[in-house]
Design goal:
This protein is mainly α. 63% of the residues lie in helices and 5% in strands. It has one domain.
Length: 274
């Protein structure tokens, strides 16, 4: 059976048109139904993936950011890792060298320990299980580390599935390249920790964009595999349709979770305890 073509039509109507119309309708409904303003829409994206507990989030003045400290770090770290790898290793499909997984493994362990410790603080009567008092700067740091690990796996996987021609070498090939990424991550986290509105506002939006980018990449990859379009892309213009489909599924997931959570809680605010 021949590989499916991006030019396939559904009946007499180009199915690409159906996809773009569906995206437009779904996006319009979501935009109308969610809180007003740019940060309001960002809140609605965060609402679908994050608990948004107020005391576990950074603030722009009195206003809570769309994502908690841990999720802010994780999605910022993922975006940083994806952008960094695309700059140092275009279309590369190899995983980082074995030695890079030593710090990456430590980041995953730190993420798990801090996450469990933070969760235990939500349960009354478990003080004897606490390892330490949770802090937002630790949530940010461990979240960022996890985001870097996600990007180290997702970037080569995406290239391997999407591109017809790729480079089998890893994007991160040396201690220097890994060190550069870690240094940028530390600088980024320090920028967040200043809580300077001029820095925090754009970084908060980038973190929310990270939610959409990661889901788009995963869903566009999945769609290409299901319809046997993997390894068929030769230029970026051919990625418009798969990306649009990925965005549509991403938006549908966010919209459905938003609707269910709002139906259950009746508020766009984060979870509250106590």
């Amino acid at each position: 059976m021949e590989r499916a073509s991006l030019g396939v039509k559904l009946g007499r109507i180009p199915w690409q048109l159906i996809v773009f119309l569906s995206v437009s309708v779904l996006l319009t409904i979501w935009l109308v139904s969610t809180p007003p303003g740019l940060l309001g829409k960002a809140d609605a994206v965060g609402y679908a993936v994050c608990h948004r507990i107020d005391e576990r989030s950074f603030h722009l003045g009195d206003r809570q950011l769309p994502l908690c400290a841990r999720c802010t770090g994780m999605f910022l770290g993922a975006i940083l890792g994806l952008v960094y790898q695309s700059r140092v290793g275009r279309r590369r499909t190899g995983l980082p060298r074995w030695w890079a997984w030593i710090p990456f493994g430590m980041m995953v362990i730190a993420f798990g320990i801090d996450g469990i410790n933070s969760f235990l603080h939500l349960i009354p009567g478990l003080h004897f299980l606490y390892l330490y008092e949770p802090q937002n700067w630790l949530r940010l740091l461990t979240g960022t580390g996890m985001g870097l690990v996600i990007s180290a796996i997702l970037y080569p996987a995406y290239n391997l599935i999407v591109w017809k021609e790729w480079d089998s070498h890893p994007a991160i090939t040396s201690i220097k390249s890994l060190g550069g990424l870690l240094l940028l991550a530390i600088i980024m986290d320090l920028m967040v920790l200043t809580e300077n509105p001029l820095l925090l506002y754009p970084l908060a939006l980038v973190a929310v964009a990270g939610v959409i980018v990661l889901l788009m990449m995963i869903y566009s990859m999945s769609w290409m595999i299901v319809f046997r379009l993997d390894n068929s892309i030769t230029n970026y213009s051919q990625m418009v349709l798969p990306s649009a489909i990925g965005f549509m599924i991403c938006l549908l997931q966010i919209a459905m979770i938003d609707a269910v959570r709002y139906w259950l809680t009746g508020t766009w605010n984060g979870f509250t305890f106590g």
